[in-house]
Amino acid sequence: MASMVDDDPRIIEFDVRTDEMLVNMGPQHPSTHGVLRLVLRTDGEVVSEVEPHIGYLHRCAEKIGENLTHRQFIPYTDRMDYLAAMNMNLGWALVVEKLMKYQVSEKARHLRVLITELNRIGSHLVGMGAYGLDLGTFSPFLYAFREREKILDLFEEACGARLTYSYITVGGLTADLPPGWLQRCEAFLGQFEPIIKEYHALLTTNAIFVKRTANIGVMSPDLAIEYGCSGPVLRGSGVDQDMRRDGEAIYTAMYEGYAFEVAVMKDGQYPRDREYPAVPADAVLGDCWHRFFVRMLEVVQSMDLVRQAMDRYSACNGPLGEPLKLTEKMPAGDAYLETECPKGQMGFYIVSDGSAIPWRARARSSSFSNLAVAHELCRGCLIADVPAIVGSLDIVMGEIDR
Amino acid sequence: MADFLINTLGLPAWLAWTVAAVVAAVLILHVIAGGALVFIWAERKIAGRIQDRLGPTRTGGKFGWLQSLADGIKLLAKEDLMPDGADGMLFRIAPYVSFCASFCAFICLPFAFDVVGQRLNVGVFFVIAVLGLEVFGVILAGYASASKWSLFGAMREAAQVVSYEVPLGMCVVVPVMLAGSMDLVTIAEKQAGWFTNWFLFHDPFTFVVFWIYVTCAVASVNRAPFDLAEAESELVAGFHTEYSGLRWSFFFMAEYGSMFLVSALAALLFMGGWNGPIPVATLLGLSEGTGDTAHYLVRLVGLANLIGKATLGVLMMMWIRWTLPRLRIDQVMTTCLKYCTPLAAAMFLGAMLWQIALPGGLVPVLHRPAAEIREGWLPGPGGEVRARDAVSTGDAVSTGDAVAAKVAQVGS
To answer: Which one of B49, B155, B157, B233 would you mutate to disrupt binding with A, by most A Cβ within 10 Å of its Cβ?
Structure first.
């Protein structure tokens, strides 16, 4: 018990050594976000080792990709990160376009920014709500889903689906926005913006929440880079990298002309474009609280981007353009592209032998690398910290197992 | 009631007492079971409203009145499972241990003046002690389930109980000291009159003590943010992971029973018990012995008062549960042992010194004269009569009378 009240929970005192116990957390467990299985080696409440076991949701998506044409594979990307299917669609569409050296119309470009950033908000809302659930508070989860529903409503209007959209596709988008959509989107943003304060009150600045997350699972920038972490997990450690700014030209060209500041702590300060709650004194850069906070900042950032995209989209006069044919042949060669998905850098690799069907399709999942670091972070923490740490990585099993 | 049976119906004493005991037990059982039904429904409705939902809307009309009953029937019909490696006897007995502890504590809980299963001169002690037994059920369940998650839940409960019981006990001692009695009826009686007589407003120290009590009471009934023994997101369902059907529902009923119990105890110790904020009965001139109707009316209002206050406490716990995240076990222990215990001790000392320095309170007119405090450690027949007289006259007791009473008491 003595070790429990220590300042640093990772210092395990072995004065009282009891038998170690192997506990299976998952695959059926309320807080392992799907079918993740963690094998915990515990000494009382203190966890000495965490080993993630994956593969319970493996669907051979990559192999399927070698049997379908490039556009036919789009629905399978939906099912990878099902919380941010638009971003997944975009990743695959862009890599095929990169291989084919195809450029979408200006209007399609802005619509893609609009849709993916809106989906980023949706994904971060789920991440935020589920994180509250991991820490034992139920209500923020439903508050988050209430707002996400409205985003899903907008998506449903645009493409007819609420979860697996297949909206962004190779060569553009399957359809243009219906009339009046932009007004409804604007209305949603106007209504959503003040609600973020509620989330900050219930979670970010809540004393118990801060106690549970601050100084827990601290990840140094070096460790984050070593494990190939990306997205909010990487930025939560203070590494200034965002593919939307630092990525390849074909991807950053999409965001050309857009003003946004990467949500990362620079010189001890987060971007100050708005009033954000102050960083609590207990929080250390790279802990669960910072990872969570970066996500919350990105929600606001994405809202700004959506607004900018709406202005640019409505200013475009030309046609949206038709997506490529399903059987459009690809030139022989290969291409790899990483895009900034809500969970991190999602990379797609494609090798073509000159037909419409990829010779090899490969996905590099951000959640996979982000989860890999869990065993480093969980060493020496308490059982209650395991959901807190794994939740702060915001993983989606569909993307890890593919 | 036993007196009534003996005197009017001429039953032998042993039979009369048995009948009275059975009637009291059945009544209390209905309070718990009925209360649990109402509170479960209320919790679902309140949780729904807090979370922007509607809660139950179909079962039994627009507001889903019958939802808890439907749940109860579902639980009855459920398969009763026991894990293979479980310790059969302990596994079966655990829910009843929990429930019985919660139920027994109700025995000496007064719902209104004289509306009490058995008036004990150590009522507070009894309630706290028996309520502590509830933990045994939880630990047994966790130990006997042959599940590692359950075992974690049980160990956490054991760690938690040693943390909250200490400050909880200290908080309870303060009103006992002010009232000079451990009898819950006497303690509540001492707070009769205007709400300024409540021990909550007795002095700044008792006010703080009340909030420490609230914290510890929430911890003692395993409600969020102290629901570590269940800890859904960490331990699946903690100590009751392996329970299903009716056995599980006994844990549930014990939890709701205890919630009501600690809330009622808070009302009795700090908020005047069955005495309302305004002494309506005294103002109207209704007091003991004015007539049977008035007598029962006063009891009924008192009953409503106490149940209302206790329900407020339960609702507050629900509100907390659906708002706050859960603490970690080491943080619970830190909160209780490192902060609550020294604070409670300091407040206890403060309240004691206040008694010596300012026996009449800051505003003597509003507070009860000191003479009425410090009597009836062992409520004999004489002591009881005096206490009751004091209640009936309420705040009208002048300082002169008080001094006279004090002199008389010292003399006796």
So the answer is: B233
